Amino acid sequence: MNQAAVTSNLDSEMELLRFTTAGSVDDGKSTLIGRLMYDTKTIFEDQLEAVERVSRNRGDGHVDLALLTDGLRAEREQGITIDVAYRYFATPKRKFIIADTPGHIQYTRNMVTGASTANLAIILVDARKGVVEQTCRHSFIASLLRIQHVVVCVNKMDLVEWSQEVFDRIVKDYKDFASRLDIPQMTFIPISALLGDNVVEKSTNMPWYQGSTLLYNLESVYIGSDANHVDARFPVQWVIRPHSQEWHDFRGYSGRVAGGVFKPGDEVVALPSGFEAKIKTVQTADGQVEEAFHPMSVTITLDRELISAVAICLVKARNQPHVSQEVDCMLCWFSEKKPLTQGAKYIVRHTTREVKAVVRELQYKVDVNTLHKEEGVSELKLNEIGRVHLRVSAPLFYDSYRRNRITGSLILVDPFTNETVAAGMIR
Question: Where in the chain is the domain with CATH 2.40.30.10?
Answer without folding.
Answer: 233-316, 322-426
